[in-house]
Amino acid sequence: MMYLSMIFFQIVAPILVLLVLGAVLQRKFAFNLKALSQLITYCFMPAAVLVNLYETSIQMSVLAQVGVFIVLFIGSQMILGHYFAKWMKLDRQEAAVFKNSVVLINSGNYGIPVAQMIFVTQPIGVAIQVILVIFQNMTTYTYGLYNLISATKSGKEIVKDFLKMPIIHALIIGVLLNVLDIYIPQMLYIPLDHVAEGFIAVALITLGAQLSQIEMRTMLNKTIFISCFTRLIIGPAVALLIIFALQLDGVVAQSLFIASAFPTSRNSSSLALEYDVQSDTAAQTVLFSTIISCITVTIVIYLSTILFV
User: Fold this and answer.
1) How many CB atoms lie within 10 A of CB 65?
2) Domain-by-domain residue ranges, the chain?
3) Model confidence, pTM
4) How far apart are alpha carbons 90 and 82 in whole angstroms?
5) Which of 10, 56, 236, 305 has the highest CB neighbour count under 10 A?
6) C-alpha 2, offset from chain centre
7) 222 burial via Cβ count (<10 Å: 0-12, 13-18, 19+)
């Protein structure tokens, strides 16, 4: 019960506050949601990813362990999403949003604060979450982006649109700046950092604005339920099997297990809005999984303290 209240008031509640703020502002001012989504995709997201990659210091031994786990875990989620979408006989657009909702995890504004709360005296737990954010960013703007583009286009158009995305350029530049230890002049870094810091707020406010146009009763559908069950229940169960198979233990195992239980990433909704692919369903899934996760994440945290001491 203590874990539940801590997670809700310190993690979920602040997210819900921004969602409500976005909903209230949308009701009053009727924002152009397409324009807001473009601002996020072409400005805030690239800046946030570049700064994150530039500032992160990664130990190679930990990166190797996390890398093997995340490849196996994300791969398993992709397979689950694919076959569940086929089993439900979803059309291309519905399948794209469903698969993204299963694979793309909110490791950033949800995962890192949770890690900071749990691993106060064990910095490695927080460092692992930072690594996971990088992997999730890469997955979001490769697999996740491909899903949405391929739902409306095909062939050369997919590759062309993919390579034009600023986030891909930001990933490459961020990695190169980090690996080569290149200094960014303050004149450029300060405004870049300001934009990156605004990403979470703008993204969540935009999501709240989008949600304000959705009837709550429409959230009660089979696709969203199965998506959340797969993301919040099956995901951690698969992660646990992978952790045991790799014989991971201690803080590394505990951190990875907890990370597997986080809800659907808000980026899945932002991208769906940008490409106009079932954006309402994507937004509903993010909201529903975030609310339900305050219970499921609490259970996973409790289990992690028992299994990995």
Assistant:
1) 17
2) 34-193+219-307
3) 0.77
4) 10
5) 236
6) 26
7) exposed
